[in-house]
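Chain A, query sequence.
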Amino acid sequence: MATTVTKETVFSMKDFNFASYSIRDADWREQYGIVLFAEAKRDFWIYINGSWLMSPIKYHSPFIRWLDKDRILIVQRRNDMNDDNVYILNSSGTILNSFNAGDAIEGVDVGHEGIWISYYYEGFDGELPNERLVLFDLNGKPIFRYNSDLQDKPTIFEGLALAKGKGSAIWIVPLDKPLMQVNPESKKATVYEEPKALNGGTFAISIRGNFVYFIHEEDGKAFSCEIGHETPQLIGKIEGVSRGLGPRESNHFISFSRKEEEVKLYRIHNDREYFEG
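Chain A, predicted structure.
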């Protein structure tokens, strides 16, 4: 059976209160639904499953993520003033906690173990310069630092994509390597030299069992490949700004289009995929 991709629209213009708006970021969990951050009429809004809240956080380029059914996370990429740029809010929009995670944030993902943040090559993370990848607890304490807490580690110049893996593991696509899995519990990093198609040209990945699915930034083409093999298969096209979802999700990617101002979920159907949450 061939690998195929299906899509579902979970947010569109009919869900918005304004004729003109811009989606800045979005997240999805089957347990919790959809949450997104949008700009309209020179203000910023949070959408949670049909409800609109005026955001107390005024960012043009944020990340938004579910923490759990009652809390969301908003992270600003740049932080030149060394102010707090990570905020935890409840479903009513009240800020519960905040902390400074540093400047030049490349990616954000969330698991039961905490908040994963990766950085651009120029980035730093507060008092932990050049770590490139840090796991924070919900109070902002670093509980795992890539450079400081790994003994034998490949150098990460910049992390291009993040995706949650099984347990506490995180997968990362470094700028100069195809694919790497980092485990904060065992304090080990495993590099996979294949598929080389991931090198420097991807901005979204999703891991399921022995398979990696990835999207090329330039043209939105989506590929499937068994981890450790250089035989990627073109499986379709995913338009917009995409991000891989965690292994417990039925859908593999979430994507939002700045042209259509829609949020879509993409599910990959692969009978060889070993799904394990």
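The chain has one helix and 25 strands. The mean pLDDT is 90.
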